[in-house]
């Protein structure tokens, strides 16, 4: 495999490994061997090391002295902690959109994402559904105009994508429920109903958390 600009080589390697972790091809606690990645992707070992540091910042790998990089484990404590934090970050973004929305035209990106989510749901396309779920947040960034919030969400997004993918892979029918919640969220944003925005997003994150925890239980 050959990687090219515009992303840096290390970012591209990190993205490649992140996708494998998110889809479950690299299992929790599995060691990521630098030499194997170097040979498989025909890249330098230094670039792989930098990619692993990027993934550590994004909470997908843990790097231990003399033990190397391992895929982070998913357990109840980590899942609940992540979902609780993401809930508050989502609420900040939702409130920002509601507060700064000036015209119906500014809703267009969200409506387009809603339509793509419907299509992904109909096709049972988990990868597209997860990606467009996070496209919602990115559409909200300009309204928040907060680079620190944006950076925090972006660094946590791969870890959250991993949990969503795990949950939806085992319970595809739940995508319909998320679509309903997203429609309710849009209604609350248009109404500038901040308490309702919080309620919908808390429910959304709690439902996501519950699904992930159920998926972690061995069949």
What does this structure look like?
Residues 7-74 form the HTH gntR-type domain. This is GntR family transcriptional regulator. Keywords: DNA-binding, Transcription, Transcription regulation. By secondary structure, the protein is mainly α. It folds into two domains: 9-71, Arc Repressor Mutant, subunit A (Orthogonal Bundle); 76-216, Four Helix Bundle (Hemerythrin (Met), subunit A). The protein contains nine helices and three strands; from the N terminus they run αβααββαααααα. The chain has helices at residues 9-22, 34-41, 45-57, 76-100, 108-123, 126-144, 147-170, 174-190, 194-216; strands at 31-32, 61-64, 68-71. It has a three-stranded antiparallel β-sheet. Helix 1 crosses helix 3, helix 2 (34-41) packs across helix 3 (45-57) and helix 5 runs antiparallel to helix 8 (174-190). The two termini are 36 Å apart.
Write a short abstract of this structure.
The chain is mainly α. Helix content is 73%, strand content 5%.
Write the layout of secondary structure elements.
Elements: H1 9-22, E1 31-32, H2 34-41, H3 45-57, E2 61-64, E3 68-71, H4 76-100, H5 108-123, H6 126-144, H7 147-170, H8 174-190, H9 194-216
Antiparallel strand pairs: 1-3, 2-3
Outline, from the CA principal axes? globular
CATH fold-level name of the largest domain: Four Helix Bundle (Hemerythrin (Met), subunit A)
How many DSSP H or I helices?
9
Q: Provide the spatial order of strands within the biggest beta sheet.
A: 1-3-2
Proportion of β residues? Answer: under 5%
